Amino acid sequence: MSRHELQNNGPLHGFACVGTIVLAGALFGTVLYLTETAEASHDPPLKEMMTIEASLARKAEKKQQPQKELKTPEPEVKPEGVSRDENKKPPDKKPTKRKTPKRIG
Q1: C-alpha 7: how far from its chain's center?
Q2: Residues 6+ apart with CB under 8 A from 96
Q3: Tens place of pLDDT per residue across the chain (105 aa)
């Protein structure tokens, strides 16, 4: 294929668009044709409705989430006596060994 043939795809794109539109229209039309129309719901006549006195009706109470009871934390009990030796010296730090890179000569 030459370069000119690869760039001249305009008519192919046009046919593809027309085919897509025709296919989408056919599918949409088929769906419209095959679905049944929904009937409007009828309101019941007033004779079928029941009336109540306003004194019988009560207002619903507003529901509330249960509240969690909060307690203050108990104070931490420290054991009596010394937990460490005040006169003891801290341990000496170990010297760190540095690795020197080996030279390849």
Answers
A1: 46
A2: none
A3: 566 666 678 888 999 999 999 999 999 999 999 988 777 777 767 777 777 777 767 777 888 888 888 888 888 877 776 566 777 787 788 777 777 777 775
What are the φ and ψ backbone dihedral angles of 62, each rounded to 5 degrees?
-75, 125
CA 56 to chain CA mean position, Å: 45
Q: Which of 35, 17, 90 is nearest to 9 (CA)?
A: 17
Q: Three-class SS of residue 27?
A: helix
Taking the alpha carbons of 20, 25, 30, 35 in that order, is the dihedral positive or negative? positive
CA distance 81 to 16: 91
Measure CA 72 to chain center. 36
Give the separation between CA 36 and CA 45, rounded to whole angstroms.
27
